[in-house]
Amino acid sequence: MTKLASRVQALTPSSTLAITAKAKELKAQGYDVIGLGAGEPDFNTPQHIIDAAVNSMNEGQTKYTPSAGLPQLKAEIAKKLKRDQGLEYKPSEIIVGSGAKHVLYTLFQAILDEGDEVIIPTPYWVSYPEQVKLALGTPIFVTASEENSFKITAQQLEESITSKTKAIIINSPSNPTGMLYTKEELQELGEVCLKHDILIISDEIYEKLVYQGAKHVSIAELSPELKSQTMVINGVSKSHSMTGWRIGYAAGNEAIVKAMTNLASHSTSNPTTTAQYGAIAAYAGTQEPVEEMRKAFEQRLNTIYDQLTAIPGVTCLKPQGAFYLFPNVKQAAIAANFATVDEFAAALLEEALVAVVPGSGFGAPDNMRLSYATSLEQLEKAVGRISKFVSEKMAQVR
User: Fold this and answer.
1) Binning pLDDT at 50, 70 and 90, where does residue 104 land?
2) What is the pTM of this model?
3) 245-266 residue pLDDT tens
4) Measured between alpha carbons, how far is 168 from 172 in angstroms, rounded to an integer?
5) Which of 273, 263, 274 shows the shortest CA–CA distance to 64?
């Protein structure tokens, strides 16, 4: 047997994909499983986007494109960034990739040498630390406490910086917590990054999904200095319900974008041509479907939040964005006689047929993530099952 590389042996499998696979397995066996693990909208891609992609194929647009993406798509991304954030980027400062995840992977490969440190606030999206490790970097975790709405402070950032610190990841709105950084909070973090010349990686993939009158702010829009210090990561997956199309982008430093482009030319050649034409339509066409989806998510959140937090031992900050609830269920797990939330979540799937993602995969072992990117009927049914499961387990302990 060929020995596997140590970097892949050290990888932790994606907990979100693992729980989704287990839920599908049980469904295939005939069980009525309600899956709250998936990180994708349950709506179909808007029809005008599908039509644009089909038309592109019928018109013969089925060949290679430039490695950094179609010029037309980069032009639409530049317009979107100008329209929404007031940011101006040249085509040479934008790279399109096969989803925001792949763009992040390429970015880490382009900027990290062995031992370089990347500051990652906890809770974090499961792929951040694994991608840093694959680039031979070192993830440095900084706890964003529940008491501070799952956000780190400028002081925490300052105390975490070493001579090896290369970058920090800011994910707002956050996966898994749904929390948003305010303009003032971002300004304070940005000043620390400028002081120490640290690259800011601003993951804004959930930018369009904000609630309760909240406003998304990109750290890059706060000053020219912060713009030059920031790589903005975004895409059409969440905003336009195009997760399977795999189109994301990075906008920022021209030298970094060029390095990423060179790397992409030897890995993917280019993002899928048809999907790029769909993304052009997503940004150039009507944005009404985006707002319709946002309103539906907000309605679901407002409906099930109170039901979830009424369960004994469950507390939860109300998210301002994305489509996840991230409740602290430690007390519920203990009261139901489970040693860990991981065990609690496993039993919830096996016995109550509700699939959630344990918070340990996000660096927060007292929590679990529930996606409300499914129908309101299914959500209420799922929360009802969770409530019944907790009550029955607590009764057995008594």
Assistant:
1) very high
2) 0.96
3) 999 999 999 999 999 999 999 9
4) 13
5) 273
